[in-house]
């Protein structure tokens, strides 16, 4: 897979000041949906913008035009401690990738897709369910 690469050391610096103990954002926005794999998504008509929460040092981004499927990996995110797959919270075609990732939400989105099935967003957690999910995950560790 050909991929664009993004070095985002400023993201790690920013996130270290605003994350919970396991590295997931302590600021959960109400107008977003969240996946168990800690990706967030904002739906706007037939487009979706999404990103990943956690200590990001390096991100492997997909090429424009690539199809992504809900729950499947499309790239990787590297933190100080580990490298993890980034899973797509919804299915669609990549229409834009973010080469400058400096915050977990406003400027920190990873990519934008044209949705192939907007109803998939209903399978994701709202902010309240995601906050509860993170607290339960943290209690296990």
Automatic annotation (TrEMBL):
<dbReference type="InterPro" id="IPR033753">
    <property type="entry name" value="GCV_H/Fam206"/>
</dbReference>
<dbReference type="InterPro" id="IPR011053">
    <property type="entry name" value="Single_hybrid_motif"/>
</dbReference>
<dbReference type="GO" id="GO:0005960">
    <property type="term" value="C:glycine cleavage complex"/>
</dbReference>
<keyword id="KW-0809">Transit peptide</keyword>
<dbReference type="InterPro" id="IPR000089">
    <property type="entry name" value="Biotin_lipoyl"/>
</dbReference>
<dbReference type="GO" id="GO:0005739">
    <property type="term" value="C:mitochondrion"/>
</dbReference>
<dbReference type="Pfam" id="PF01597">
    <property type="entry name" value="GCV_H"/>
</dbReference>
<comment type="similarity">
    <text>Belongs to the GcvH family.</text>
</comment>
<dbReference type="InterPro" id="IPR003016">
    <property type="entry name" value="2-oxoA_DH_lipoyl-BS"/>
</dbReference>
<protein>
    <recommendedName>
        <fullName>Lipoyl-binding domain-containing protein</fullName>
    </recommendedName>
</protein>
<keyword id="KW-0496">Mitochondrion</keyword>
<keyword id="KW-0450">Lipoyl</keyword>
<feature type="domain" description="Lipoyl-binding">
    <location>
        <begin position="38"/>
        <end position="114"/>
    </location>
</feature>
<dbReference type="GO" id="GO:0019464">
    <property type="term" value="P:glycine decarboxylation via glycine cleavage system"/>
</dbReference>
<dbReference type="InterPro" id="IPR002930">
    <property type="entry name" value="GCV_H"/>
</dbReference>
């Amino acid at each position: 897979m050909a991929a664009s690469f993004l070095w985002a050391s400023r993201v790690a610096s920013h996130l270290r000041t605003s994350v919970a103990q396991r590295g997931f954002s302590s600021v959960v926005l109400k107008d977003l949906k969240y996946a168990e794999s800690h990706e967030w998504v904002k739906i706007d008509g037939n487009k979706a913008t999404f990103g990943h929460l956690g200590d990001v040092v390096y991100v492997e981004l997909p090429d424009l035009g690539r199809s992504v499927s809900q729950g499947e990996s499309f790239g990787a995110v590297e933190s100080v401690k580990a490298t993890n797959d980034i899973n797509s919270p919804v299915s669609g075609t990549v229409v834009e990738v973010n080469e400058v990732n400096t915050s977990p939400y406003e400027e920190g989105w990873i990519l934008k897709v044209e949705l192939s099935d907007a109803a998939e967003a209903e399978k994701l957690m709202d902010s309240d369910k995601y906050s509860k999910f993170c607290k339960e995950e943290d209690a296990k560790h």
